[in-house]
Design goal:
The structure is a single chain. It is built from 19 helices and 31 strands. Helix 5 crosses helix 6, helix 5 runs antiparallel to helix 12 and helix 15 crosses helix 17. The chain is an alpha/beta fold and 769 residues long. It starts with a helix and ends in a 17-residue tail after the last strand. Strands 14-19-18-17-15-16 form a six-stranded mixed β-sheet, with helices on both faces. Strands 7-8-10-13 form a four-stranded parallel β-sheet. Helix 13 links the parallel strand 15 and strand 16. The chain folds into three domains: 292 residues, TIM Barrel (Alpha-Beta Barrel); 224 residues, 3-Layer(aba) Sandwich (Rossmann fold); 125 residues, Immunoglobulins (Immunoglobulin-like, Sandwich), CATH 2.60.40.10. It binds beta-D-glucopyranose. Beta-D-glucopyranose (BGC) binds next to loops.
């Protein structure tokens, strides 16, 4: 029957036999024929019932790399023919006869990634580069991150797109992960809550999101072919947990499966992951798409798994779907189910609603949001003798380091943004009425104008440093690092400082300290670096991360005290790279070109490992200084659990001399009765408003008993042990201000889940769990 409807024809193209379908079935309804169902007017089921097999196939295959439709062997196109948003990563196909529009899907996590120039159009189409995900997470401010999502999402809407391919939410398993800047944290509670906030902000515009990469895309080395062996417990407690929190709290329209394999199978082919866990256990209601052009080639397995759309999509895949149904290797009911998932989202999209986008979002207003979030994500790591903020008597600055002039807004790859400008630190300080020394600035500006030189520090001779130290009030030296898609960071040249950088820090410190003047180091970096080799030389260290296009202004805001730093580390800086629990297993075996990686550290990722095994980090999870001080009151614990929730209240007071914000962090140490447990885990957090000196704010935390549970592989269940628990409230994982003991009287199975995701062989985890 389908064959009769389809009028398929074969054409020979480039020596290959390609099936090319023409959408003719039903396209010209006969006179008196029943009207063709229309999406929005008829039910989704009726629309699906009216679809030809080819039309269904066109729904589950994306609209090509440019999102402009499927190119057939003869060069013609189906699916969609116009390109409304040049530079968008992809789109879905349109079926005009059924009233189904194409949707446009651009990247990516740090801002809308589109082309600046369009053919035959003189206008320039810039988008705002917001701070990197790691910077946003360091704000620990869900309200602010939601505002970023709202501003960013408005650009998605006003440029005519439907779904933004963001946020990325994979866990920082190892600092060398090339895409960590696109991700939030080593901790699933921070990652999940920050992601939920940005998704709510995005989707408040009536556009959709694609939370990615589901799951465990934690390295770029062989990212599409790496087989990751992970225990169910580590998946459930760490890698899936971040997604679970975000999906339950914010219902993203779509999920993007990852490139990698988990326990022997590509994630896009795992029904247990994409249907059992995602839909049945967590209640996800949107659709799932693959990442772009992955190595998983089994379309039938992907369709059956509930990976609804293959991206970016091509004609060959359309025809393979058609053929699979015709040859009974793919049940048309599966196809119908997946099409239904997609149509459920299309009806919500701006394209379906014929939204009249302006093509001119308010970039000026969004730049201010970017600047604020950039400044609030910065973490003050050291501040000896109140070296910061800069005083008005320190206007003349010896501004050193390539990144002070070629400041890095964000990472590379699909997470890059075509922004109108990047304000350098030199520009930001000048805007704030501070004066980078002119001759030095001219030398640097000319040097970094050749982008190839930027990764090699400009060599400054000792005599120049001595002259600068005599002439200037203070030295500010920026260290820059970048990374991006397809490549992990190099341990020697990216994680560790290069000899030229160490020498510049060393010699600048000597020259300025001899004159009784200070050295401030600014870190404009994508992820943690080594600080052991040099940090004692600095009077202050400001971790500015990659704070977006307004970088220099945001940095100057914090350096000059206009903004009091309130960022906290959402990822640990270890004393040695070798202290990282996955260091032995990253990026897998064989080392030269890894095929498999065992997550032998199990659940002991980040501070869960350092705190349990007494490894002192350089800067711990949750850490960050302020220009003021705070005090946390003793905890008031409610006497009894209400609705299986523990209620704890604290008041925090600004005890210093300037206004500031603080992050209150709630950790719990659980009794390790039935299985081993981390020494403590973050359960909740909150950020104060700007508190004036002497001002207080009270927080009430409601902690569900279910969130105290650990996952038992053998029982497929989350269990909260009976016994004594310690509640710890502080301003970092190691600066605990108040504690309180509470008891759980009976062991509780808080949730039973399906027996899924098992590794094919037992994963040899280091620590009993
Ligand atoms: C990346 C995704 C991105 C997609 C589309 C892939 O290479 O992994 O994060 O959304 O390309 O550009």
């Amino acid at each position: 029957m389908f064959k009769a409807l389809l009028h398929l024809r074969k054409v020979i193209c480039a020596g290959a036999l390609i099936w090319c379908g023409l959408i003719t079935a039903g396209a010209q309804p006969k006179i008196n024929a029943k009207p063709v169902p229309q999406l929005g007017k008829n039910s989704i089921k009726e629309v699906i019932a009216a679809m030809t097999l080819q039309e269904k196939a066109l729904m589950v295959i994306g609209g090509g790399r440019t999102g402009t439709g499927i190119i057939l062997g003869d060069g013609s196109m189906i699916g969609r023919t116009e390109s409304r948003l040049p530079g968008a990563a992809g789109g879905t196909n349109a079926i005009p006869r059924l009233g189904i529009p194409a949707m446009v899907l651009p990247d990516g996590p740090a801002g809308l990634r589109i082309d600046v120039k369009r053919q035959g159009d003189n206008k320039l189409y810039y988008a705002t580069a917001f701070p990197s995900a790691t910077t946003l997470a360091s704000t620990w401010d869900t309200a602010l991150v939601k505002r970023v999502g709202a501003a960013f999402g408005n650009e998605v809407l006003e440029y005519g797109a439907d779904i933004i391919l963001a946020p990325g939410i994979n866990i920082h398993r190892n600092p060398l992960g090339g895409r960590n800047f696109e991700y939030y944290s080593e901790d699933p509670v921070v990652a999940g809550n920050i992601a939920a906030a940005i998704i709510k902000g995005f989707q408040s515009n009536g556009i959709g999101t694609s939370i990615k990469h589901f799951v465990a895309n934690n390295q770029e080395a062989n990212r599409a072919g790496i087989n990751e062996l992970i225990t169910e417990r580590s998946l459930r407690e760490i890698y899936l947990k971040a997604f679970e929190i975000a999906i339950k709290k914010s219902q993203p329209w779509t999920v993007m499966s990852s490139y990698n394999l988990v326990n022997g199978t590509h994630t896009s082919e795992r029904a247990d992951l994409l249907t059992t866990v995602l839909r049945d256990e967590w209640g996800f209601k949107g659709y799932v798409m693959t990442d772009w052009g992955g190595k998983a080639k089994n379309l039938i397995a992907q369709m059956n798994a509930g990976n609804d759309v293959i991206m970016p999509g091509n004609a060959n895949q359309v025809n393979r779907i058609i053929s699979a149904v015709e040859h009974d290797s793919l049940d048309v009911k599966v196809l119908d189910r997946n099409v239904e998932h997609i149509l459920n989202i299309i009806v919500k999209s701006p394209s379906f609603k014929h939204y009249k986008y302006s093509g001119a979002p308010d970039l000026k207003a969004h730049a201010q949001v970017s600047r604020q979030a950039g400044a609030e994500g910065m973490v003050l790591l050291e501040n000896h003798g109140n070296a910061l903020p800069l005083k008005s008597s320190q206007k003349n600055i010896a501004l050193l380091g390539n990144a002070s002039y070629a400041t890095i807004a964000g990472g590379t790859g699909s997470g890059d943004v075509n922004k109108v400008h990047v304000i350098s630190l030199a520009g930001g300080l000048t805007n704030a009425d501070f004066m980078p020394e002119a001759q030095l600035a001219a030398t640097y500006n000319s040097y970094v104008s050749d982008w190839r030189k930027r990764s090699r520090e400009l060599n400054i001779a000792d005599y120049q440093l001595n002259t600068l130290a005599a002439k200037c009030d203070v030295a500010v030296l920026t260290i820059g690092r970048n990374s991006g898609e397809t490549k992990d960071r190099d341990l020697d040249s990216n994680y560790h400082l290069k000899p030229a950088e160490l020498s510049l820090i060393d010699r600048t410190a000597t020259a300025f300290h001899q004159q009784g003047k200070k050295l401030i180091i600014v870190l404009n970096i994508c992820g943690p670096i080594d600080t052991k080799a040099w940090r004692t030389k600095a009077d202050a260290i400001l971790l500015a991360w990659q704070p977006g296009q307004e970088a220099g202004d945001a940095m100057a805001d914090v350096l000059t005290g206009k903004v009091n730093p309130s960022g906290k580390l959402a990822t640990t800086f270890t004393e040695n790279y070798e202290d990282v629990p996955s260091a032995r297993d990253f990026p897998g075996t064989p080392a030269a070109s890894p095929e498999q990686v065992a997550y032998r550290e199990g659940i002991y990722v980040g501070y869960r490992y350092y705190d349990t095994f007494n490894i002192k980090p350089a800067y711990e999870f949750g850490y960050g200084l302020s220009y003021t001080t705070f005090k946390i009151s003793p905890v008031k614990l409610a006497a009894a659990l209400v609705k299986n929730r523990l209620t704890a209240q604290v008041t925090i007071t600004n005890t210093g001399k300037v206004a500031g914000k603080e992050v209150v962090q709630v950790y719990v140490a659980a009794p390790a009765k039935s299985i081993a447990k981390p020494a403590q885990e973050l359960k909740d957090f909150a950020k104060t408003r700007l508190l004036k000196p002497g001002e207080s704010q009270t927080f009430t935390f409601n902690i569900p008993v279910a969130s105290l549970a650990s996952f038992h592989n053998d029982k497929n269940a989350w269990i909260t042990d009976a016994g004594q628990y310690l509640l710890k409230i502080g301003t970092s994982s190691r600066q605990i201000a108040q504690t309180s003991i509470f008891n759980i009287s009976a062991t509780m199975v808080t949730e039973r889940v399906h027996s899924v995701l098992h590794p094919p062989q037992s994963v040899d985890v280091y620590n009993a769990q």
